[in-house]
């Protein structure tokens, strides 16, 4: 029996929970470790916590602990709140081809083909992260908010200058993110495209609620291969993105290695690995109030939220 790690609402409190066989158990209570009452607390002690959580999942049938059916639990974003959120840009082969066509260009070689390194921007944490079922208020300054389903790696150990071959060992688990993007706020038109101040990453990527996250974290050991997963997104039941993580340009290990060569990654940081083809910008269609978005990644689950 395996488990999934989540955050849930317990009255005015927020607790870390273990989803085992359809029921949610308070992580700190079933293990006796008060420091694991939050997901961030568990990630700070990930090696020990993961072993204890897996052991509980195996003995849950013999345990006297009382779980609550998942349907009766109010889920929150699994990491409240991430330390840093690093987001890969232009990192799926099908998405790069789609965006080139949208600009009237022929798809060319990828940055990896050209010998470049992975590239990331930073998204805010407390303002951006919301959980399953959230109603995200569209920012007043944008009429072109776009969707981007992404596989998110949750860092579980401090990492600095990690080689590619050891990078995935730094991942505690994986979850789903929607990197919502205000496309019409991405440029400052009075600055020429050659200016380093032409792009406005805060307005485009960091508005309130711009990072729906969840529904839980699947431990890394429970995924056969993070680069062999189906990945999809629907808007109002219409399939928009339908791809596969094998189409990543720089894989998760390469991204973590690159990031760790520049900054120290710490438990609770997130790496959003990029989005595939099917975004709204490529088809000139964007999110509206009342839209319902469903995201799905194979072996992880389903994340839903709406727009207001």
Could you please describe the fold and organization of this structure?
The protein folds into two domains: 4-76, no CATH class; 85-307, Fumarylacetoacetate hydrolase, domain 2. The strands form four sheets. It has a seven-stranded mixed beta sheet. Strands 4-3-2-1-5 form a five-stranded antiparallel beta sheet. It is built from seven helices and 19 strands. It is globular and about 65 Å long. It has helices at 27-31, 39-44, 46-59, 93-102, 164-167, 201-205, 252-262, and strands at 4-10, 13-20, 23-26, 68-69, 75-76, 85-88, 120-123, 129-130, 135-136, 145-146, 149-155, 171-178, 181-182, 211-219, 230-235, 238-244, 270-272, 292-297, 301-307. A hairpin with a 3-residue loop joins β18 (292-297) and β19 (301-307). With 308 residues, it is α+β, with helices and mostly antiparallel strands.
Strand order across the largest sheet: 7-6-17-11-12-14-8
Characterize the quaternary organization of these chains.
single chain
What is the CATH superfamily label of the largest domain? Fumarylacetoacetase-like, C-terminal domain
* Arithmetic mean pLDDT: 96
**Taking Cα atoms only, what radius of gyration do you get, to the nearest Å?**
19 Å
Structural class comes to alpha+beta
- Main sheet: strands, sense, barrel: 7 strands, mixed
Order of helices and strands: EEEHHHEEEHEEEEEHEEHEEEHEEE
Query: Do you know the CATH architecture of the largest domain?
Result: Alpha-Beta Complex
| Shape estimate | globular
The number of helical segments is 7
Q: Report, as a whole number of angstroms, the end-to-end distance.
A: 39 Å
């Amino acid at each position: 029996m395996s488990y999934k790690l989540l955050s849930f609402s317990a009255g005015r409190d927020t607790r870390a929970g273990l989803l085992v066989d359809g029921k949610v158990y308070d992580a700190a209570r079933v293990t006796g470790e008060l420091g694991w009452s939050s997901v961030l607390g568990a990630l700070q002690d990930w090696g020990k916590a993961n072993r204890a959580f897996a052991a509980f999942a195996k003995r849950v049938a013999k345990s006297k602990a009382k779980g609550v059916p998942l349907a009766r639990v109010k889920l929150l974003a699994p990491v409240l709140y991430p330390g840093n959120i690093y987001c890969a840009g232009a990192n799926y082969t099908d998405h790069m081809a789609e965006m080139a066509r949208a600009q009237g260009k022929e798809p060319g070689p990828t940055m990896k083909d050209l010998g470049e390194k992975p590239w990331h921007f930073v998204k805010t944490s407390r303002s951006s992260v919301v959980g399953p079922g959230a109603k995200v208020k569209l920012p007043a300054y944008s009429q072109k908010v776009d969707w981007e389903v992404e596989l998110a790696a949750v860092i579980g150990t401090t990492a600095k200058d990690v080689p590619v071959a050891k990078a995935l060992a730094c991942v505690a688990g994986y979850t789903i993110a929607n990197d919502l993007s205000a496309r019409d706020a991405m440029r400052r038109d009075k600055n020429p495209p050659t200016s380093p101040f032409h792009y406005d990453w805060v307005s485009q990527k960091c508005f309130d609620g711009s990072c729906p996250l969840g529904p839980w974290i699947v431990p890394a050991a429970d995924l056969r291969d993070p680069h062999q997963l189906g990945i999809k997104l629907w808007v109002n039941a219409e399939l928009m993105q339908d791809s596969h993580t094998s189409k990543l340009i720089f894989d998760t290990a390469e991204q973590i290695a690159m990031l760790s060569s520049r900054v120290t990654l710490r438990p609770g940081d997130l790496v959003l690995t990029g989005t595939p083809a099917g975004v709204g910008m490529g088809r000139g269609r964007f999110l509206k109030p009342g839209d319902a978005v469903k995201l799905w990644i194979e072996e992880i689950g389903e994340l839903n939220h709406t727009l207001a």
